[in-house]
Description:
This protein has 126 residues and is of the alpha/beta class. The chain is 36% helix and 30% strand. It has a single domain (2-123), classed as STAS domain (Transcription Regulator spoIIAA, 2-Layer Sandwich). It contains four helices and eight strands. Strand 2 and strand 3 (18-23) form a beta hairpin.
Amino acid sequence: xxxxxDNEYHKMQLENGIVIETFKPSYLDLKTTQKLVEDRVKTMGxxxxxxxxxxxxxxxxxxxxxxxxxxxxxxxxxxxAALLVDSTLGSMIGNFFVKVTNxxxxxxxxxxxxxxxxxxxxxxxx
Length: 126
């Protein structure tokens, strides 16, 4: 696994054509979300990847932050996104978020990393 970035907001790694982004804040507001996306886009250098977003540290977020993540700009550089949550209940909540915000890319919540990676593998550029 290759580390692409590691700062106060997130750690990004590349593994088998999938970007794994581990979020560090416990709360996401719009400003933090915009910074995360800006860092991700800059780090990926114009190449699009499927994303495994480990959001287990996040306890809550603002509606504006969630809406930004689901927007075209928030999905810039992404082919698909798997949200890694900490429980089956978290997975249900995550999938509800996906239905309500309707992201511009295929997005699904998972409580098991292996299942998330397996789902994302279909989006890896060959």
